[in-house]
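tool_call: predict_structure(chain=1)
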Amino acid sequence: MTMTEAELATLPVSEFAFPGPLRDQLVAAILDGSKTTTASLFEQYQVPGEELPQAARLEAVIDSEGRRVAAIETTQVLVVPLGQVPLEHAIAEGEGYTSVAEWRAGHERFWTSAELATELGHTPQLSDSTMVVLETFRVV
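tool_result:
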């Protein structure tokens, strides 16, 4: 499937991290094909109007300047406890993780960051039983 700029402009937006160096790194990994998965706290979807991602969903990836740089299609969504995230998912995040422990440490830093705490209205308390949304996608 080839996406035209006009079609890309009509898609809902997908944001990876917050604008800045981390988003730039993640978007670059999406564009070069090394990032094919992402993870979110299930709690982030408890905000009114936020729906869990679903397979076949198309979204426009935006960079730190808000430019639509790619379209992605969700191919799989799993909701699992944080303590059960598989190594395959961690590696496919494209951030250089070689273990689930590295992946978890990096994500816990983000999920307890001031920016996400502001968005959620509190700092999440994370444990092995905290539910996370694991999304697999492909660039279209």
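agent: The chain has a mean pLDDT of 94. Proceeding to next step.
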